[in-house]
Amino acid sequence: MEITDLLHRAHNGDSDALNSVVPLVYNELRRLAANYLRREQGPLTIQATALVHEAYLRIAGSPVPAYENRSHFYGIAARVMRQVLVDMARARSAEKRGPGLEITVADLDILGAPGNDDFLTLNDALDRLASINARKAHLIELRFFGGMTAEESAAALEIPVHIVRRELRVAQAWLRRELAS
Questions:
Q1: Does the pTM of the predicted model rise above 0.85?
Q2: Is 114:122 a contact under the CB 8 Å cutoff?
Q3: pLDDT digits (tens, 9 = 90+) for 26-54
Q4: Which residues contact 22 (CB under 8 A, 6 or more apart)?
């Protein structure tokens, strides 16, 4: 059965459909997780498999959105993986420095590998970008957290590749300026 059909069935209340999707998309989700984690600096506190499992638990534990297609599902999975990593970074930062201390940011390349503090700062900047332009923030999310190419992002958002590339460049420039200030 096609993944999109299963996703539609899951949205319509078929509890077995989401469980049937998992084996079909697992390798791709693991690849997306591994792409991001490969860029991490320092010792990894989570493996790709654990990141995928945690993301799946969050997806399965919430209301099933109306997935338009498999690319839309991967986009949502990338967003959930981002939230898992943000939550982990926040927990590590809280343990490391205690409550109430300010986070400082060194030079951060948004396509590089942020540390805990940088990761949280990047997340906050992405939230500000989303309030200005949700699509640009979503493109950064798909690229940075989902490891999606411009072509994959274009398919997920159903927009031309040249627009994805242009908006990614603008979004990256905005984030660099935002993070530098």
A1: no
A2: yes
A3: 888 888 888 767 766 555 677 888 888 88
A4: 56
